[in-house]
Amino acid sequence: MAFFLETLLGGLMSGMLYSLVALGFVLIYKASGVFNFAQGAMVLFAALSMARFSEWIPEWLGMDNLFMANVLAFAVSVVVMFVVAWLIERLVLRHLVNQEGATLLMATLGIAYFLDGVGQTIFGSDIYKIDVGMPKEPVMMLESVFEGGILINKEDFVAAFISALLVVALSIFFQKTSTGRALRAVADDHQAAQSIGIPLNRSWVIVWCVAGITALVAGVIWGSKLGAQFSLSTVALRALPVVILGGLTSVPGAIIGGLIIGVGEKLSEVYLGPYVGGGIEIWFAYMLALVFLLFRPQGLFGEKIIDRV
Amino acid sequence: MFYRENGQFKTSYKSDQQIFPIPQDRWAILAIIAIAFFVIPLMVDEYLFRAILIPFLILSLAALGVNILVGYCGQITLGAGAFMAVGAYAAYNFLIRVSGMPALGAILLGGFTAAAVGIVFGIPSLRVRGLYLAVATLAAQFFWDWAFLRVKWFTNDASSGSVSVADIDVFGWIVNTPTDKYLFCLGILVIFSLMAKNLVRGNMGRQWMAIRDMDVAATVIGIRPLYAKLTAFAVSSFYLGVAGALWGMINLGSWEPAAFSIDRSFQLLFMVIIGGMGAIAGSFFGAAFIVILPIFLNQILPVIGGLFGLEVSIALVSHVEIMIFGALIVFFLIVEPHGIARLWSTGREKLRLWPFPH
Question: Residue ranges per domain, chain A?
Answer without folding.
Answer: 2-295
